[in-house]
Write a structure and sequence with these properties.
By secondary structure, this protein is an alpha+beta fold. The protein is built from three helices and seven strands, in the order βααββββββα.
Length: about 140
């Protein structure tokens, strides 16, 4: 299992950050890598990329304005994402931890840092960058 953790400051209050991160049905309006979202129910949604590739997300923990955890799965990976939100006056710190395992043998890295750099860091960085641009 590969794990990656990033911590960022978003230039927006925690209420706005929380509201936008959990409004998954609106991701296609501000996330550059998302074409559409299919909401299954209050705990599950499917995210489709611009190329039609999809990932299923299942919410496992919601602590309003504090913590959001999800199990994720697609044809290549399976894992868990954790977002921890901390108010810093008019800004919000997000600690985003992603833990994933490659499902197919050819995707399993010889050195897990290769996988972290090519998938986890890219996904995490894109998400928080798009969120910051959306909110500022």
């Amino acid at each position: 299992m590969a794990t990656s953790d990033i911590k960022v400051i978003i230039q927006s209050d925690i209420d706005s950050v929380w509201e936008n991160v959990l409004a998954v049905e609106c991701y296609h309006t501000w996330r550059k890598d998302v074409d559409r979202i299919e909401v299954i129910d209050e705990k599950q949604f499917i995210e489709y990329t611009k190329n039609g590739y999809f990932t299923t997300f299942n919410t496992t923990v919601v602590e309003p304005h504090k913590r959001w955890e999800l199990d994720i799965e697609n044809s290549h990976i399976k894992g868990h994402w954790t977002f921890i939100f901390t108010s810093k006056d008019s800004e919000t710190e997000i600690n985003f931890t992603a833990c994933v395992t490659a499902k197919k043998l050819f995707l399993r890295p010889i050195d897990k840092s290769v996988f972290e750099q090519t998938y986890l860091k890219k996904e995490q960085t894109q998400f928080v960058s798009d969120l910051n641009q959306h909110l500022t």
